[in-house]
Every structure is written in structure tokens, then in C-alpha cells.
Design a protein that fits this description.
This protein is α+β, with helices and mostly antiparallel strands. It has 20 helices and 9 strands. It has a 4-stranded mixed sheet. Helix 12 packs parallel to helix 19, helix 15 packs across helix 16 and helix 17 packs across helix 20. The C terminus is likely disordered.
């Protein structure tokens, strides 16, 4: 058994298959993949990695298994899946995941190929575990897969607390100990026991508060957009493939960007925090509906049109269209009077948070500081935005709305 001191969970005891997996290259690579990617450009202390998060997820999974009375090979499969759940992450975590997916068809939780061969496969086989079944748990398959990837999973419980701890913001605080103690299975569904509607709401609220403050902070979004643009250019102009890039760490990608003439400018800007600025920051109501459905090719064409109208280089315009707000946590199951109900059906708070998420949604157009004025004016015309002359708007009407409005 190995005991590791953790900044969030204090001491984590790692044993069995997890201890054997710990020193395999795919797991050790996670020491060099940042948990929050470009968020560190906003919160300098957010330098934690996918490695320590994976340890935290393993720890909480182990606690949950103990509470649920699950033992033997079933439990070992879940522990292995918890430790390995992030080995599929690309450099900078989610920041370039869409770029990789467009070329490989794989997201970070598509880990069958990574677990099916090499040192991880050998360790799993030595412990009598089928790599395919472990990969299935990582993808959330089956009853026990809900512990690793689901609405009440231990992944979410760890990253909210860990990200809040390392950024220093107070919003991700949740009672993960109570969440784990109150978990149970009812007809194959992972639910929270009676009297825990507020416990489930705390998970939902923590995520809702962390999203605009940390995960979708405008500076992090600008840097992420620049990183994606550089990564796309790197794959288009060099011999590097998305499959290879998927296995790189953060330093590998940054060095590759620096060495490529076509992407060295992005690398310099990211390294020196010389980021583009907001030319447009538009609320949902100002954005035409069809713009939200645009694919990557359509977005690229719009960027070119904006650049042409503004008489700037194509590289000077980045259009950032986030997906419509979603709230998977609202489908968490809770027991109410002996009946399994979705949180969204039971909680008044869910509707208020949905409204707040829509209110916080922003479309971004980014450009170098000295060109942002022209780019903003061109973007309003080319995209058909209804901004009443305000290119960058961060006013949020209705922010003081009460819960009574959503009954």
C-alpha cells in the first residue's frame, strides 16, 4: 500500500490494482497535463494537474464502494476506472479536445485503445481485470459506471472541490462526504437517499457558480480559443497527427507550437500572456439562433468575412460560439417519500439556475488590442448582432431575480 498526501483529501491510501497502475506511463503523463488548462492565466495558483485529480477520484470512489458494500473484483474494476478515467485527456485537458475529436472521433473518455494494450493492459490482466470492462466503466456504462461518470459521479465531486481550492474561489465548496454517505442504488439507478434534495442542489449550485467565475472566465476563453487556433494550424501545416497529439502533455504541445513558423506567434502570446481582447461580448438575446448551430467550417468562413470587412489579417479574428447552456446535474435522482425523482422535477432552484445560465451565456469575438475596435464593428454587421451599439457588454439583466419568479 502507498500513502500519498493530498491537498484536498489529506492522506490517500492507494493499494491493489490502483497502486500497480500508478507508475505506468499513461498515468504518470497526467502529472504534466493541467487540470484547468488556460484558467491558470486568470488564477495563477490553479496549477494542479490531472494526476492529482485522478488520485482524488480514486479516493472518493474507494469511499463510495465501502459505503455501498461493494467488494472483490467489482470494486477493483471501479477503482481502476476511477484512477484511469482521465488518461485519454489531450494536452491542456478540455481546451483542445474538440480539435482532436474532429480528427479522431474520440473524446477523452474513449479509452479502449489506451487500456487495451501496453503497460496498463498488462497491469489490469495481472489483477484479473478485463480492460474492455474497465474502459466501459470510464464511459459510464452499467450500474457501477454511474459512480465514475454520471450525474452523481465522484469525478464531479472531486474536481469542484479541488478547482475551488486551487483557484481560491469559495464557490465550489460541497459536502462530498455527505454526498458519498447518502448514495444508494434503487433499481439500478444511483440515487441520493431521503432528505437529500438540498445536498443534490449544493452540487448543482457549486457547478453553476464555478462556471462563469472559473471555467468560462472570459480571459480563459480567449486563451483557449487562441490555443485551439494554434493547434488546428499545427495539425494542418506539419506532420503531427491528432492521434499523436492526443498523447502529448502540455509542454509537448507548447514546444511544437513554438517550433512551427505558422504557430509560433500563438505560442509567444500564450507564453507571455499577450492575449487577444474582446471585440464583442454578446448576450444570448443579441445573437441570431442560426449562429449557434454553425459548424467549424461555417465559423471559419464567418471569421474570414469579419476580417475582410475590418481589413485585418485572418489570424486577427477569433469567433467563439459556446454551446447552449446545459445542466446535466438536474437529472440527478433523489428519493422523495420513497419515490425516485429527478432533481429538476423536485427543486425550484433548478429553474432559477437555468435562467441564470442563459443570462451568463456570451458569444465572443476576439482580436489583437490595436485591432479590436475595427473587428468589433465588422463583427456586429457580419453576424447580424443586435447590440444597440454596445460591442462589449457584461450587464446581466435579471441578476437580482428571486426564486419566486420561477415557481
Amino acid at each position: 500500500m502507498t500513502t500519498i498526501k493530498d491537498s484536498v483529501h489529506d492522506h490517500i491510501e492507494v493499494q491493489g490494482v490502483a497502486a500497480a497502475l500508478l507508475d505506468t506511463p499513461p498515468v504518470q503523463r497526467l502529472r504534466h497535463v493541467s487540470q484547468l488548462g488556460t484558467v491558470t492565466l486568470v488564477y495563477p495558483s490553479a496549477n494542479h494537474t490531472r494526476f492529482e485529480h485522478s488520485l482524488g477520484v480514486y479516493h472518493l470512489a474507494d469511499r463510495a464502494l465501502s459505503h455501498l458494500g461493494i467488494e472483490g473484483q467489482q470494486a477493483e474494476r471501479v477503482r481502476a476506472a476511477a484512477l484511469l478515467h482521465d488518461v485519454g485527456h489531450s494536452p491542456y485537458s478540455h481546451n483542445v479536445e474538440d480539435v482532436v475529436h474532429r480528427r479522431t472521433g474520440k473524446y477523452h473518455d474513449d479509452v479502449e485503445g489506451l487500456l487495451g494494450e501496453g503497460p496498463v493492459a498488462r497491469v489490469l490482466s495481472e489483477h484479473g481485470l478485463n480492460p474492455d470492462r474497465v474502459a466501459g466503466l470510464v464511459a459510464g456504462e452499467g450500474e457501477l459506471g454511474q459512480l465514475v461518470s454520471g450525474e452523481l459521479d465522484v469525478d464531479r465531486m472531486d474536481y469542484l472541490v479541488r478547482d475551488a481550492h486551487h483557484t481560491g474561489v469559495p464557490y465550489g465548496t460541497i459536502d462530498h462526504e455527505r454526498l458519498i454517505r447518502e448514495l444508494s442504488f434503487v433499481d439500478g439507478e444511483l440515487v441520493l437517499d431521503e432528505g437529500n434534495v438540498q445536498t443534490a442542489e449544493s452540487l448543482l449550485l457549486a457547478r453553476a457558480l464555478m462556471n462563469p467565475t472559473v471555467y468560462q472566465h472570459h480571459v480563459a476563453r480567449i486563451a483557449k480559443s487562441m490555443l485551439r487556433r494554434g493547434t488546428e494550424r499545427l495539425l494542418a501545416t506539419t506532420d503531427a497527427t491528432a492521434e499523436e497529439l492526443r498523447r502529448w502533455d502540455d509542454s509537448d504541445l507548447l514546444v511544437a507550437l513554438r517550433r512551427c513558423e505558422d504557430t509560433s506567434g500563438y505560442a509567444r502570446r500564450l507564453t507571455q500572456r499577450d492575449l487577444y481582447k474582446r471585440a464583442v461580448w454578446a448576450e444570448r438575446g443579441a445573437v441570431p439562433d442560426d449562429l449557434l448551430e454553425a459548424d467549424r467550417e461555417a465559423v471559419g468562413a464567418m471569421e474570414a468575412d469579419i476580417a475582410n470587412t475590418a481589413n485585418v489579417d485572418d489570424d486577427a479574428v477569433v469567433l467563439d460560439v459556446p454551446a447552449e447552456p446545459s445542466m446535466t446535474e438536474s437529472s440527478s435522482r433523489v428519493l422523495v417519500n420513497g419515490e425516485v425523482r429527478r432533481l429538476g422535477e423536485q427543486s425550484t432552484l433548478v429553474n432559477a439556475i437555468r435562467a441564470a445560465q442563459r443570462d451568463q451565456w456570451r458569444l465572443g469575438v476576439y482580436a489583437p488590442a490595436d485591432e479590436s475596435e475595427r473587428v468589433g464593428e465588422a463583427a456586429i454587421r457580419e453576424l447580424g448582432l443586435d447590440l444597440d451599439g454596445a460591442r462589449v457588454r457584461d450587464v446581466r439583466p435579471g441578476i437580482h431575480a428571486t426564486l419566486d419568479e420561477f415557481n
